[in-house]
Write a structure and sequence with these properties.
This protein is an alpha+beta fold. The protein has a domain at about 40-129. It has 2 helices and 7 strands. Strands 4-3-2-5 form a 4-stranded antiparallel sheet, covered by helices on one side. Strand 6 (about 115-120) and strand 7 form a beta hairpin. The protein is rod-shaped and about 85 Å long. About 15% of the residues are buried.
């Protein structure tokens, strides 16, 4: 008889722990999904911008390109030979992609850009919102 009560109380305890873990996962799942749902957008935009910069540096003449994809939820950082796109606060999954600058170690930070205008004049690259 005593064996059954210990076993039964242990099963109740395991059930309660399983229920608490299930509720925690159920509450956190939307937040996790929200953070990682934007990852493909950040990755694609980062690669696009890095390839645009590579092309502009390789092009021998002055050029202006308008990147009109809405990145108003993100911060775009162009520095240290890479493009990094992250969300405003601490981002669990920022996207980075390298590019090859030519004698240029600028730091360009664009916060919540709805569109970005890249311009190269006399070999100097600028980016504005």
């Amino acid at each position: 008889m005593r064996f059954m009560t210990k076993r039964g109380s242990m099963l109740v305890f395991i059930s309660i722990i399983t229920l608490v873990i299930g509720i925690f996962v159920g509450i956190m799942y939307p937040q996790i999904a929200k953070n990682y749902a934007k990852l493909p957008l950040k990755t694609a935009a980062t690669r696009d911008i890095a390839l645009i910069l590579d092309t502009m540096y390789a092009y021998p003449y002055d050029v202006e390109i308008e990147y009109d994809y809405d990145l108003s939820d993100f911060t775009v950082l162009i520095s240290e030979k890479k493009v990094k796109i992250s969300e405003g606060g601490p981002d669990p999954a920022p996207a980075e992609y390298p590019f090859v600058p030519i004698d240029d170690d600028k730091v360009i930070t664009l916060t919540n850009p709805e569109k970005i205008i890249f311009k190269k004049e006399n070999g100097v690259l600028t980016a504005t919102q």
